[in-house]
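To close the chapter, one final illustration. This time we ask the reader to focus less on the individual chains and more on the assembly as a whole: which components sit near each other, and how the overall shape emerges from the parts.
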Amino acid sequence: MPTRHLDLPQGTLDLLILRTLALGPQHGWGISERVQQISSDVLRIQQGSLYPALHRLERKGWIKPRWGTSENNRRAKFYELTKSGRRQLEVEEDAWKKLTAAVAQVLGTA
Amino acid sequence: MLSDLVFRARSLFRQKAVETELDDELRFHFEQQLEKYINSGLTKREALRRVRIDFGGLDQLKEECREARGVHMMENLLQDIRYGLRMLRKSPGFTVVALLTLALGIGANTAIFSVVYGVLLRPLPYQNPAGLMVLQETTPKVGTVGVSYPNFQDWRAQSHMFSKLAAVESVAFNLAGVDPAGADQPENISGAVVSSDFLSMLGVRPVLGRNFDSAQDQAGSASVVLLSYQLWQSHFAGAPNVLGRTVALNGRAFTIIGVLPQDFRWIEKTDVLEPIGLRANDPEFNERGDRGDVVVLGRLAPGVSFAQARAEMKGIAARLEKAYPFSNDQFGVALQPIRDVFVSDLRPSVLVLFGAAVFVLLIACANVANLFLMRGAGRTKEIALRIAVGASRSRIIHQILVESFVLAFLGGLLSLALAFAGIRGLARLLPVDMLSGANVNLSGPVLLFTGAVVVLCTFIFGLAPASQSTRPDVQSELKESGRAMSSSAGQGRMRGALAIAEVSLALILLVGAGLMMKSLYRLLSVDPGFRPDRVLTMNMSLRTAQYAKDPAILNFWQRVLDQVHQLPGVEAAALGTVVPLTGNHSRNDITLEGMALPKPGSFPHPDVHLVSPGYARTLGVPLQRGREFTDADTENAPPVAMINAALARQFFARQDPVGKRFMFGHPSTERAPKWITIVGVAGDTKLYGLANPARLEVYLPFRQGASSEMTLIVKSGIEPAALTSAIRYAIASIDKDQPISDVATMHQLVSNSVSTRRITLILLGVFGALALVLGAIGVYGVLAYSVAQRTHEIGIRMALGARGGDVLRMILAQGARIAGAGVVIGILASFGLTRLMTNLLFSVSPADPATFAAVAIVLVLVALLASYIPARRTLRVDPMIALRHE
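The assembled structure is written out below.
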């Protein structure tokens, strides 16, 4: 396999989930597929961390679940971003950008 | 926060549904992934293998999801509650004692808080009650008095700080004619005559019919009336067609135009409202110097403060004083927020009792904390073990607090039954008119308070054991021998401190109760100026048209006297207008012949009695000089009077007042003075309560004054109440439509006059006794536990030659140390706290040494007794058994 998978840095999973759901409601499998696709197969989310994360985000009220039908006509649990989730996404995106910029800066000068 | 809780609760209570959803969700993922692998060309087996690797441990994944949902905390809580209940079941003795203690403590607080809430806190049923003020006039001679109607009219014209002012006159009516057949008994009801905007100022709307209109403020108003909801129910069975019907008030027909709401309250009991226009032509309403039973209700204009309004009224009163010196000299205006008028003098009693109830609760909590500590000592090993196998300390504190909460909650539930019974008992204890219609019951806010107390208790008695329990050194605890060893010194100290706290709290309560008891004793020992034994009193008001003329009134009273005198069992009978402690009063300025004329506001202002011959003898008022009235002192005889000793002392210091003359009112050039000759001097009587000083009094023969309202007093040879029906029958034979009200023995009147103090004493006494018992149980518990723990040590001491007496003394000394420390702390605290109840005391200092000493002795004795019982147990210790006990 030519692709090299990267382990997700701490705390980025929430950001990825929220960002993915910002495009529209999605079920858990769809989220992991979408992340994998968009990151050109570099990022892979393990089920072992995806579902606990989804339930944690739901408890925090950032996403909310709705049972719907998948593309192949199966019953699936879709998640969508709530208003407070959207706000949280902005906060986390902002923080991420600052972090990466700072890390890049440090790397650049080293 | 709340949504989080709801979410967790949902996860917990809909556990099954949530689990199924989780299964479905994960299966969907599983199958999607499988399909994807198969589509990418893998064999079914290979695909299945890959998916399983991806998923890892399914159960672990589910558990992590559950944890993420926060199910665990709730599960732990449920587990702790179940554990707590199991622990309580396992030690029923502990549970019963703790529950009863808590139920008593919480129940006392709930019951008293229901009074605090009903009297002091519950919003009055008015719109924006904070802006409502009650205004009265004041004079240095009497204090606050009613408002004269012309003054009220001037206030209303001149005031800008009040958006509205209304006059309210308290009156009583003879009610009849409800039953069209005329078969109903006449009765005495209370009511108010009010300005037309009275109700709209309060924000009260009739539930039926309409309010008065402004035309009814003027003379010649139609005879209309509003009924209270209660009267409507009791006399008209709540009939909706009551509007337009008439009732006879004082023999006059009044048309009912409306019904007041059920929760309507006024300062005085109010059965009916009449418009003030009906009184506008009465002479006493147009006489500026006449101050009856009118109070003024005012609503502050928006943004106006109490101080601003008071300043303005002060200015208006000063202007009126200047303009009308004869009627208004030295008269001012008193403003009171309406809540204060309702609460009147109950506030200090209610607050002192609430404080006492809180003390009882603290003692109860200390007791339960002690019980927990003792049991906790037996559990240190269990807890040490749990810590050793990985339970976190916070988890254990959490569990002990939950256990405490379970106990407090059950105690709280039990307390509601006690509080319910307590409130019913209180209701029976309190005179009906004492609360001015305040509702005292287990309402929502009271239950909320009980809930808060339960939570508070949990922390008060739960935290000490919780902090103690997690302190043990795990290693040494586990290393110790299997027997529960003597608990740590720290625990012993804390138990001792709790017992000391209980003793000092009990002392404070008992000192309070002792001071109240002494006050009441002193108050009831005050000479009232009359002999209340075997004297019955009852009121009659002649209000119907047949008594419009004086001869008719006099004729009625004379026939009453004649008839009652003939009844068997009657030793003496008389009539009087201002019988002591009945709340009736009538005061007037007088001018003594030859006195230097003072300012108009400084004339002597005695209470004026109209009495029949034999009044002083019937009531047992001593005659000091001269004579009583006789049947010869009629309307045609020369005017005569008796005065009381206070008046004689003040104005006839070294002369004999008999034969001197005085007149009512101030000398005037327009009319000739009507001199009245003093024929006798009577002793002072306590008209306004036993605690008040004697006032000036003047007595006139009833035939020379003709009052339509009088109190009949009957001295009997037998139990006076037994005469009631015979007297009623005799009066009905004179006028069958004449109601009789306020039947009471003189002893009841004396007792009612001290009822606030008496009830405060009873409740403080109950709380004090409760505190004493709980405190004694506390001391007993600590020592009994200590003796049990020290059996081994005692065995060694005895084996080494100590005698039983030595050991007994050792334990008693421990009890004495607790009692001594508790008493000293309690006395110091009492010195500070009893000052708060100065208002309730009568001729007793809040630091009364005798009371303090007596209470301290009682407490020390009880504490020693409580220590003696466990101490005696040491006498039975057999050293051999005690030592083998290892």
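The first strand of chain B starts at residue 132 and ends at 139. Residues 142-329 of chain B form one domain. With these observations in hand, you are ready for the problems at the end of the chapter.
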